[in-house]
Amino acid sequence: MVKQERAAHTRRALVRAAGEEFAHGGYKPVSLSRISKRAGVSYGGLHYHFAGKEDLARAVVAEAAAILRDEVCAATGSAPGDGGRGALARLVESTYRLVDRIDRDAVVRAGFTLTLAASSPDLGEDLCERWRCWVEEILAEAARAQELGAGIRGADVATAVVATTVGFEALSVRDPAWLKPDAVARFWRLILPGITSPETAAALHADRRPPRPRGTAVQRLTLSR
Predict the structure, then answer these.
(1) pLDDT digits over 150-173, tens only?
(2) How far is CA 24 from each of CA 39, 56, 171, rounded to the nearest angstrom?
(3) Among 27, 24, 80, 97, which Cα is nearest to 55's?
(4) Which distant-in-sequence residues (6+ apart) come within 8 Å of 96 by Cβ?
(5) At what angle do helices 154-171 and 181-195 cross, to 10 degrees?
(6) What is the spatial distance between Cα 64 and Cα 87, in angstroms, rounded to a whole number?
(7) Is the dihedral of CA 79, 81, 86, 92 positive or negative?
(8) Each residue of 47-58: pLDDT tens digit?
(9) Is the whole-model pTM more than 0.70?
């Protein structure tokens, strides 16, 4: 058991180190030697757990996808269709949580970076597509519940939400302020009055729950969709 725990710890350290490297440099410039050095694991130890850089990148994206599922579903206390908080309220909250997690978690940031990079190979997951599908699903629920204004198409709102949140990650490479709550709040202040009633828009701003306290350690979150 001790040996298994040590192996799991080493694997987590390698995924974390790879995420930090990919988040800063993208896929192509990153070397396995840099990842092993950052993780404090020998080059041979790295190859014991991963066949190569592509295998490591796949692990990083898979980890980011698991965290994404947690942040947009479980962390808000509701998932699409569960009859909990209103759909728009959960959507607004999930955008704050996602942007906050991208800001403080290199693995999640790397997951989006790798997904968007033209130089990345097929890594088995598309975080942007997963996020888009969830946003479209929750907005379809909002439409059924008549939370959206007359003539407002959920698909159009989803385009704006996905483009903006993913764009924040891209813009943060030069200016980290794009990943702060104020940037998300400005977006929602602009868009909410155009897609729902003034009363609902005001209530959504007042009801927004703050993200979890920041921490240095990020646990592995394995949740089924």
Answers:
(1) 999 999 999 999 999 999 998 888
(2) 15, 15, 13
(3) 27
(4) 181, 184, 208, 210, 211
(5) 160
(6) 24
(7) positive
(8) 999 989 999 999
(9) yes
190 phi/psi in degrees, rounded to 5: -75, -45
Dihedral over Cα of 166, 169, 174, 178: its sign: positive
pLDDT for the residue numbered 58: 93
Quickly list H helices, the chain: 2-25, 32-39, 43-49, 53-72, 87-104, 106-116, 127-144, 154-171, 181-195, 198-207
Q: Could you tell me the two tokens for 81?
A: 């269709």
Output the pLDDT for position 3: 74
Cα–Cα distance, 177 to 168 (Å, whole number): 9
H/E/C letters for each residue in 89-115?
HHHHHHHHHHHHHHHHCHHHHHHHHHH
Chain segment 164-202, per-residue pLDDT in tens: 999 999 888 889 999 999 999 999 999 999 999 888 888
Residues making up the chain, counted from first to last? 225
